[in-house]
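User: For a reading group we're discussing how well predicted structures match intuition. Take Ribosomal RNA large subunit methyltransferase H. Before you show the prediction, I'll give you the sequence so everyone sees exactly what went in.
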Amino acid sequence: MNIQIIAIGKLKEKYLKQGIDEYLKRLSSYAKVDIIELPDEKAPEQISPQEMELIKNKEGERILAKIPTDAYVIALAIEGKMKSSEEFAHSIDKLATYGKSKIAFLIGGSLGLSKEVMKRADEALSFSKMTFPHQLMRLILLEQIYRAFRIMRGEPYHK
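Assistant: Thanks. Here is the predicted 3D structure of Ribosomal RNA large subunit methyltransferase H, as structure tokens, for the group to look at:
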């Protein structure tokens, strides 16, 4: 299985990089995982709805340009469907069973994902009703992907 994480924003925090590297190493025996980091647009503290849309659209164009045409696309969005780890594992297993061996996970910038990106997504996934920093979401997503592979293979995982 080939998994891409297409994310807006540069990862700066050393502790997040270390965690991400650890999960990428753990995942290497299950799947090929690539992280594509795209530049974010600078957003002022006080921003109008029009400026917000403009920024999301610019970031969205960058994201859309990187999505493989044959990928199943999962957008991480607060308004997406919430799943348990077991349900998430079942979803990934089902995709693999039905020949969807390329999955692209999309993580937007601090303002979220554009409407065009959401239209391209095959599904929207939410990890919580809470808002998380987009850099931290990469680590959380990788941990859940790793957990999903452990669940799919009947291997022990921390509950």
